[in-house]
Prior knowledge:
Helix 1 (11-22) crosses helix 5 (184-194), helix 2 packs across helix 3 (82-97) and helix 3 runs parallel beside helix 4. The chain has helices at residues 11-22, 55-62, 82-97, 130-144, 184-194, and strands at 2-6, 26-31, 45-49, 67-70, 101-105, 112-114, 117-118, 149-155, 157-159, 168-171, 181-183, 203-208. The chain is globular. The strands form three sheets. It has an eight-stranded mixed β-sheet, with helices on both faces. The chain is of the alpha/beta class. It has a single domain (2-208), classed as 3-Layer(aba) Sandwich (Rossmann fold).
Amino acid sequence: MNxxxxxxxGMVGKELVKQALHNGHQVKAFGRNVFTEDLPKDxxxxxxxxxxxxxxxxxxxxxxxxxxxxxLGGAITDADVTRSLGMKNIVAQMEKAGVKRIVAxxxxxxxxxxxxxLVLDTPDYPSAFFHVSKEHYKAYEFLKASNLDWTFxxxxxxxxxxxxxHFVTNADxxxxxxxxxxxxxxxxLFMLNQVSKTDxxxxxxxxxx
Length: 209
């Protein structure tokens, strides 16, 4: 499978690149710093240095791919709109290129606490993460409004560690049990597996170790 990975130089992005190559996929890793980060040396890996908000560069990176993985990061302040506007551009260029499948990284705050309330709007939600959670939710709204086959993966704290293969998931709500954390390896493992699955299409996914 040909896969384009956005946010390829972040903690989760690097795991996605590594695992996708291990599974024999052709990978296009997109980012500003792909040539200066410690990404694997592999004949199946194409490094694409580009700007996330540039329509032409993003379209070129997506063309010819079977699916897109997005692990966009950024600051947690309200001044950083990388996640939302980056997703807006990715969605637009995927629709233009005719590529339908995307699995994207969000945050726990975008899940439902109940039928009428998001986790980010609950009284006990940490205020320090409110702005970044709103950014994730805006990215989710761009996916939801698209004609793509999307899955929006919404973890709590991401721990920089290898995959264990042991985690729980739930559609649109927090998983049970929920420890509010998951390793970057397990997160990448789940996201990569979802590329070829249909059980969480057009769903947010709560996930936890």
